[in-house]
Amino acid sequence: FVDIADFLLVYIEEAHPSDGWVSSDAAYSIPKHQCLQDRLRAAQLMREGAPDCPLAVDTMDNASSAAYGAYFERLYIIQEEKVMYQGGRGPEGYKISELRTWLDHYKTRLQSPSTVVIQV
Predict the structure, then answer these.
(1) Residue 91 placed within a domain
(2) Least buried of 18, 21, 30, 58, by fewest C-beta within 10 Å?
(3) pLDDT (tens digit, 9 = 90+) per residue, 61-77?
(4) Taking the complete model, does pTM exceed 0.70, yes or no?
(5) Domain that holds residue 70
């Protein structure tokens, strides 16, 4: 959907730090971030998974996570500063198929000629 949308990954606090609540299927061993440099280093792993996608990193006070209720992953579509789609909280509510459906419908609307009615 790069022809109709810009994408941004936002790396927030680590959901399962290696020195905290560890997940049995964690692909990486990332300790809890003690400073912004820790978070920036961990975010580079995310960049490897999507090298062409812009990446932002949340502040240490987790302002983005709090503002968007990410805890620990969430999908959004924002258009003209308005939330058009808000996925459920992850991991259970993280449904990429819902996002794809929304984008499919949006793309169809963009490609459909609009009808203008003029009353005289």
Answers:
(1) yes
(2) 21
(3) 999 999 988 877 899 99
(4) yes
(5) 9-98
